[in-house]
Amino acid sequence: NITILGLNRLQTLLNDRFIQSIECPGPGKPVLVQKGGAMQATGIMLSEEEINSAMKEISERTKIPLVQGVFRAAVGNIIVIAVVSDFVGTRFIIQKNIHRPQFTNPPFPQR
Fold first, then answer.
1. Which of 4, 38, 40, 42 is deepest in the core (most CB within 10 A)?
2. Is the CB of residue 42 less than 8 Å from the CB of residue 28?
3. What are 92-104's pLDDT values in tens digits?
4. pTM of the model
5. Closest to 92 measured CA to CA, from 31, 25, 39, 17
6. Helix (H), strand (E), coil (C) string for the chain
């Protein structure tokens, strides 16, 4: 499991193996989760400071600059896609359970 300090209020959602994605539509708006193929609203609303802190932490951990516009980063088993905007407020989606192929045999036949 991944821990992002700026997203500590979402940690139970990050740890829930049945949740496929977490969407924050912006500051002061209910966080949405995709669970069992359906989107569900949660009672969690993040402040602009919480969102900005989380995006800054992800940027620092991945060494991907955080600039206005689209931000994409992979951390552990999650992918974060964000639209960074001072004008309308930053919003993001976390996609969970990224499975990277693990080869037990060489991917190409040995000669």
1. 4
2. no
3. 999 986 555 554 5
4. 0.80
5. 25
6. CCCCHHHHHHHHHHHCCCEEEEEECCCCCEEEEEECCEEEEEEEECCHHHHHHHHHHHHHHHCCCCCCEEEEEEECCEEEEEEECCCCCCEEEEECCCCCCCCCCCCCCCC
Which amino acid appears at position 92 of this protein?
F
Q: What is the largest CA-CA distance in the chain?
A: 59
Residues in the chain: 111
- How is the beta sheet containing 30-35 ordered, strand by strand? 38-45, 30-35, 19-24, 91-95, 78-84, 69-75
Pairing of strands 69-75, 78-84: antiparallel
**Angular region, 36: left φ>0, alpha ψ -120 to 50, beta rest:** left
- Which residues fall within 8 angstroms of residue 12, CB to CB, at 6 or more apart? none
CB under 8 Å to 42, separation ≥6 — which residues?
13, 30, 31, 32, 33
Six token digits for residue 86: 């001072």
